[in-house]
């Protein structure tokens, strides 16, 4: 009687030590609809990733049989977009669950290494000016360079009983501080902060704050909600608006700041591994932070290759902190003057 054999990650059973790679899945044999529904991205984008990461993923390995870059990328995309190592995903491309996990690790590392190339403020003047104009068209706030907020991504409890990852809602998480432009393109992504840190503490320790504090002058400002500290380069809403102009400013601030919330919702819908409703990331915090960063890179690469940021937007709000407003004693007097001048000149 024939004994069925499950998909095994064993080179010797299939090809012996002389075979270098095994192309278990041929992307050319399946439809565009299958690729989009199974892996979350169209054929052209997947091929672009293979071209971009192929050399890195083809590095020599101690294993007797390497998995092709194409299959590694499909495995990782399958995980990022579904949030699980379901057997059907491995079956679709012909690899085991253990191999799926290794592929995700390899591709995640390769994408994270590309973060500085695809995420950053260092863009040409024309692009920066276009972003300011697009932000202005949203609700009339001038000179906006980006909108900033934090979002919590659920993770499993670390092996060590580290309470620093327990957030104010009682679950373990990574607190990620993100900045985006009016199209949803990420300009900054800090994905490594323990969930127990409040947004204000993340901001105070962040590379974002250091970047702007080290600049002698600023051509504009970021927008942050009431959890953030008012800075000359970071405009926040007024805690207690009194005049019609102040109310109009707050409404404009809310409408413009909503872009970062929309971006996070779209990312969590496209990358289900970041969506707490699909379960938390089953890795140590460091690896979770790398997976989140890899998804941020993929998000930006997809935008820069012509995909729409809002295609997968959902309606429910992402997990965010619930912190109080900025205390008056921490107010930067020069920043306060700049905000009042902004309100007077544009909302009176």
UniProtKB/TrEMBL annotation:
Q: Which cofactor does it need?
A: a divalent metal cation
Q: Does the record bear Cytoplasm in its keywords?
A: yes
**Function according to Swiss-Prot or TrEMBL:** Transposase-derived protein that may have nuclease activity. Does not have transposase activity.
UniProtKB keywords: Cytoplasm, Hydrolase, Metal-binding, Nuclease, Nucleus
Which part of the chain is the DDE Tnp4 domain?
148-300
* Molecular functions (GO terms): hydrolase activity; metal ion binding; nuclease activity
> Which superkingdom does the taxonomy of this entry point to?
Eukaryota
* Protein's name in the database: Putative nuclease HARBI1
Q: Does the keyword Cytoplasm apply?
A: yes
Q: Where in the cell is it found?
A: Cytoplasm; Nucleus
Q: Name one GO cellular component term.
A: cytoplasm
The record's similarity note reads:
Belongs to the HARBI1 family.
User: Which InterPro entries does the record associate with it?
Assistant: HARBI1-like, HARBI1_animal, HARBI1_dom
């Amino acid at each position: 009687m024939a004994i069925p054999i499950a998909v095994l990650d064993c080179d010797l059973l299939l090809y012996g030590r002389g075979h270098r790679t095994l192309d278990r899945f041929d992307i050319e044999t399946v439809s565009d609809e299958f690729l989009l529904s199974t892996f979350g991205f169209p054929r052209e984008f997947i091929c672009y990733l293979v071209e971009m990461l192929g050399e890195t993923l083809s590095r020599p390995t101690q294993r007797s049989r390497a998995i092709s870059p194409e299959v590694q990328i499909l495995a990782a995309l399958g995980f990022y977009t579904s949030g699980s190592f379901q057997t059907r995903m491995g079956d679709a491309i012909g690899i085991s669950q253990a191999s799926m996990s290794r592929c995700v690790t390899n591709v995640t590392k390769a994408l994270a290494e590309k973060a500085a190339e695809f995420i950053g403020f260092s863009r040409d003047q024309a692009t920066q000016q276009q972003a300011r104009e697009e932000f202005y068209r949203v609700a009339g706030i001038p000179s906006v360079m980006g909108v900033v907020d934090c979002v919590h991504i659920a993770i499993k409890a670390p092996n060590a009983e580290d309470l620093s990852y327990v957030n104010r809602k009682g679950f373990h998480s990574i607190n990620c501080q993100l900045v985006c432009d009016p199209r949803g393109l990420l300009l900054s992504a800090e994905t490594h902060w323990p969930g127990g840190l409040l947004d204000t503490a993340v901001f105070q320790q962040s590379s974002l704050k250091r970047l702007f504090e080290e600049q002698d002058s600023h051509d504009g400002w970021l927008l942050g909600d009431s959890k953030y500290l008012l800075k000359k380069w970071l405009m926040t809403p007024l805690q207690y608006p009194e005049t019609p102009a102040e109310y109009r400013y707050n409404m404009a601030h809310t409408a413009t700041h909503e872009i970062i919330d929309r971006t996070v919702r779209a990312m969590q819908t496209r990358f289900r591994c970041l969506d707490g409703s699909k379960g938390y990331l089953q890795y140590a915090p460091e690896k979770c932070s790398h997976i989140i960063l890899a998804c941020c890179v993929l998000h930006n690469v997809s935008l820069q290759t012509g995909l729409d940021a809002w295609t997968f937007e959902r309606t429910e709000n992402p997990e965010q902190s619930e912190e109080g407003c900025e205390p008056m004693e921490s107010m930067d007097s020069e920043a306060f003057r700049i905000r009042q001048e902004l309100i007077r000149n544009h909302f009176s």
